[in-house]
Every structure is written in C-alpha cells, then in structure tokens.
Write a structure and sequence with these properties.
Shape: elongated
Oligomer: single chain
Low-confidence stretches: none
CATH superfamily of the largest domain: Ribonuclease Inhibitor
Structural class: mainly beta
CATH topology of the largest domain: Leucine-rich repeat, LRR (right-handed beta-alpha superhelix)
Number of domains: 2
Distance between the termini: 72 Å
Largest sheet: 7 strands, mixed
Radius of gyration: 21 Å
CATH class of the largest domain: Alpha Beta
CATH architecture of the largest domain: Alpha-Beta Horseshoe
Order of helices and strands: EEEEEEEEEEEEEEEEEEEEEE
Helix content: under 10%
Number of strands: 22
Mean pLDDT: 93
C-alpha cells in the first residue's frame, strides 16, 4: 500500500497527502513511471511525529501549509528546482533549526517560517523581490539574515520577534518597510537602511529597545506612527541630506517629541 495519496495530472504526479507512519520519510521521485512534481496544500499537515523528509529533485512546487505543524521535523531538503514555496508551508515547525532555500526559488509566501522557534539559520535566494508578511515572525532564535539585493519591499511582521538579531543591513534595493516588520526585535542594536528607502510604516521598529543610533537616508519621505516607539536606548537620530524635516511626514513616530535622543541633520 502506498504511503501517499496522489493524483496524476497528464504526465505528472501531485502528492496530496502523506498517510504513512514513518518518522523518516523519503518521497519517491516517480510513481507509475511519472515524475513527482508537486507537494500539494496540507500534504504533510500536522504530521507531528515526522523528524526528516527527503524531497526528490523532480519537485518544483511546495504548496500552502504543506508541512505546517510538523512539530518534530528537524531536517528537510528543498530541491534546486523548487520555484514556489506556498504560504505557511513550514510554519510551527518548532524543531527545525536550519534550512537551505535554492537560488531558483523566486516566491516564498506569507508566514512560511512563522513560529519556527528554534530556526537558527536560513539563506534567502537572490531571486526574491519581496519578503512577505510574517515570513519569519516569532523565529526567536534566528540569529542573523542576509537580505538579497533583489528585494524591494519588506512586508508587515516579516521579522517580528526575531529577538536574536543584533544588526540588520537593508540593501539599497529596498524602498519600503512594512507595519511592525521588526516589531520587538529586542536584541537589535544597529540598522543600516537602504539608500533608496522611501517609507517606514507604523510600528516598524516598535520595542527595539537596544537600538542606540539610526541614520535615515535623504530618500525617506514617510515614517509612520509609533515606528520607533519604546526604543528607549536611542541616543542619536541622524537625517542625511537634510537641513530640516521639511518634506518628510514624521509626526507621532516618537522621534521628534523629546522622548528619544538628539536629532542631527547632515545636509
């Protein structure tokens, strides 16, 4: 009896559900002479006893919630031909410590690694244009991340509660940082902003209380409400390429009301 429920579409096999009982799973590269190409939505959802999955090189697509709540999953490979990883694909995989995403992957959905509380390292491919909502939300042990210089936007809650971050470099390709994107990154001491950044949405860095200094590029025209609220160690706030705050929407950000450090202008 097969360990998988599947369907054949033309000459491909789509894995619909794992129905086996093994802790270590090796997916077949083909079934009945046809290549296995898709892991469908929820295919391994809540398979709580699985510790390892080997995915064949024939797979190009990992669906939404495919491995969500595989709480014992420690090891998984993502083949080099996978170009899409769907929303919540690995969320709540609490035992997962590291993962390598191939360079061909150009779409990583919302909350893909949300609440992977033991995830320590991950690479992002240089094909991404956006870090989606909640991608690494609640990854409390993620120590660092390199954002590729192809990314143009960081969406809301993308790195919320990544408490082990100490510094972050946002490449010059990024033009916007979303609502609560770095919420409660309490270990964060340094941020290097993109020189083409135009907007920082509300609460983007709220409760990052170890930040001591920030430098805004001249390109910034909007900083949202409470963007730096409760950043209590902030001592220096520098605006590059400006003589004053004309032309920038900055009110109610906790930057200009005297609760943080001194503001400097560097024309």
């Amino acid at each position: 009896m097969s360990e998988f429920e599947y369907e054949k579409l033309i000459d491909e096999i789509h894995i619909k559900k794992y129905i086996g009982e093994k802790n270590v799973v090796e997916m077949p590269s083909e079934i009945k002479g046809c290549p296995v190409t898709y892991i469908c939505d929820k295919a391994f959802w809540k398979c709580k006893n699985i510790t390892s999955v080997t995915i064949p090189e024939s797979v190009v697509f990992i669906g939404k919630m495919a491995f969500e709540e595989c709480e014992s999953l420690e090891s998984i490979n993502i083949p080099k031909n996978v170009d899409v990883i769907g929303d919540f694909a690995f969320s709540h995989c609490k035992s997962l410590k590291s993962i390598v995403i191939p360079q061909n992957t150009d779409f990583i959905g919302e909350c893909v690694f949300s609440d992977c509380e033991n995830l320590e390292s991950v690479n992002l491919p240089e094909t991404l244009s956006c870090i989606k909502e909640g991608t690494f939300d609640l990854c409390e042990n993620l120590k660092s991340i390199t954002i590729p210089n192809t990314v143009t936007s960081i969406e809301k809650f993308a790195f919320a509660y990544c408490k082990q971050f100490t510094d972050i470099k946002i490449p010059d390709s990024v033009t916007s940082i979303g609502n609560s994107a770095f919420l409660c990154c309490t270990g964060l001491k340094s941020v290097t902003f993109s020189q083409n950044l135009t907007s920082i949405e509300e609460k983007a860095f709220i409760n990052c209380y170890n930040l001591t200094k920030i430098e805004f590029p001249a390109s910034v025209t909007y900083i949202g409400k409470d963007a730096f609220k409760a950043c209590t160690d902030l001592k220096e706030i520098i605006f590059k390429g400006r003589k004053n705050l004309d032309g920038i929407d900055i009110y109610d950000t906790w930057l200009t009301d005297g609760r943080h450090g001194k503001i400097f202008f560097e024309p």
